Fold this protein.
Amino acid sequence: MHQTSIDFNDLMSHLKRDEALIDSHYPRSVTELVVFLSTNNWLSSENLPCIPVNLKTEEEQIDFLFDNLATYFEGLNIERSLLHHVLPAAYGLYGYSKCQELAKTIDISLALNLEAIRGERGAFDNRLHSIARPYEEQENSALNTLALIEDSEFADDKGRFLFGYDTSPRCQDAICLRAAPQTHGGARDVFGFLKKSLQDYLTNEMDLSVQLRYALDLAMTGLADLGNISERRAFRLNDHAFSYGLPTNLIFKDPGYNHGFPVIQAVGTAVLGELKTHALPSRSLMNDDLDSTLAFSSSKRLVDNLGLLSKIMAIEVLMSCQGIDLVWQKLPDLKLGKGTQVAYQKIRQHCLVVEENRYVIPEINELDRIIFTGELLFAVENSTGFLK
C-alpha cells in the first residue's frame, strides 16, 4: 500500500521495547510493521506471529506471512508483490530504530570508559563541535558524553592527580577517545540517511529499492565503525600505560594466578571481525539461489548484525566498570558522573566485579541483553533525561 507520508516519531513510538536478544525468531515488531505498511492500520497483538530466523529467503518469509496473516489480510486484496515491497522496509524500519538506540548507548559506553581512565573531557567541549566542526550529530554525541560525566571526579584533574599516574595536566587522550564524537556522529549521520531513504522508498511511486539497498549497506558500515572504536577503547584498558595506570589486564588481585581480561577482550575483537565481514555490500554477498531482492538481503542483514555491535559494547562496559572498581579500590570516595553512576549501578545489578578467575559468559550475555533491548539506555534516560 502506497504511503503518502511517514511520521517516524509516531511510528517508532508504537514499537515495543525488545525483551530479549534475537534468537529463534525475529521480534514481533517486524511483523507489526509488515501489517501496518500493508494495511495502513497499526495492529499490536500478542497473537501476531514472529518470523522464524531459519527462513532465509524472501520467498520463504512471504509464504510464512501469507499463511499466518490471512485473518488480518482478509478482504484487503493483499498481493505478493506488495509484501515484496514492504518486507525490506519493515526490517529497515526496525533496524533503524535499533541503530538509533545503539548510537545513544555507545555514548554511555564511552562515558564509562572515560571514567575508568580518568579521561580528559576537553575534547568534548561544545565549542569544538558547534563552531569549529558544526556537524549536528557529532555535537549531539559530545553533548551526551558531557551530560553523562557531569560532576564526575574521575574524569577530572582531581581524579587524575589523586590516582597518582598523571603528574601534570593531561593534554589529550587517544584518538579512539578524543575523536569519539566524530566517529559516533558519523555513524548517526549514516543512520539519518537510512531514515530519509526509507521515507523516500515508502512515499515515492518510483521503485527506489536500489537507493534503499545502498542506505542499508551504509548503515551496516556505520555499525562496523561503532564496533571498531568500541573494541579499540576496550583494548586499551588492558594495558597499564594505555589505561593511565590501571593494573595490567585489569587484574583485581593476585596477578599471576588471576589472568584478568585479555581473553574477554579478544572475544570482542573476534566479534568485530565477523561484523566487519558482514559489512561488505550486499552485491558481493548475493547468492542467486536465495531468490531474494537486494533490498531484502540488505535489510535482513542489518537486523541480523545488530546483536554483534551490542556484544562488542557489552565487553567495553564490562571492562570499563572493572576499571572504575580498580580506581575505587584506591580512592573509595571518588564520585562518578550523574549518568555514569546510574549506568554503573545498572550494570552491577547483572555483573559483579571480577575479583578472581571465573566463568563470565553468562554475565556478558546478560549485559548484551540489557544493551540490545535498550534496558540500560532506558535506566540512564529515566534518571538523567533523554539523550540526544
Q: What stands out?
A: The domain at 87-384 is CATH 1.20.200.10 (Fumarase C; Chain A, domain 2). The chain has a mean pLDDT of 92.
